[in-house]
Structure formats: structure tokens, C-alpha cells
Amino acid sequence: MKIIKSLAIFSCLATFMLVGCGKKEVMYEKDYYVQIDEEAEQTNNEGQYVYNVKGFDENGKEKVVYFYVEEPYKKGTLLRLPRSLDGYTGDPEVIEADDLSKEVKKKLNL
Description:
Strand content: 25-35%
Distance between the termini: 70 Å
Strand order of the largest sheet: 1-5-6
Oligomer: single chain
């Protein structure tokens, strides 16, 4: 009986260790919506363009977000930016005005 308990405990620990070693996924908190209204501020050492803009969540709550892109966006481009709990910004997605909530449209004057 002791051997069975020991094996069960060892199996559980091994499983938890293997799961913990796997690829860590970023848990996104919410999306922010931005409209590009100015040129990218600068490029970093890797040749990426940096944006530091006001974004709005689905309810219209404002937050300054920054993100890096390979190529700059044209003025007026609307983007959805996923943000994680620890501030990581995921890849921007170009969207249409119809994809925005009424609150965000109002904040972006659309």
C-alpha cells in the first residue's frame, strides 16, 4: 500500500513538473483600441517602430499603450491591441470602425 501511495505522489509531482516546463502562454486581460494619428515616435535598436498612444477598452476607459511594429501604419489606421495583466502588448490587428463599440467610437470621434 505504501508503494502505491508513493507511486501516486511521484506521478503527480512528475506531471506538475512537466506541465510547468511547457511553453508559457500570455494571459490577456483585455483589448485596447487605438487610432494612429501621428508618425511612429522612434525606432529601437532592432529597427522596429515604436508607438506610444492613447487607447480605449471596450467601455471607453482610457489607457496609454505602447507597442512595436516592423512597418509604420498610415494615419487613421484603427488597431486592436491585446494587453496582458503584466503590461505585455500582443500583436496589433487592423480593424474597421464597425468593429468598435459605441463608447470607443465616441472617444475616437468616429
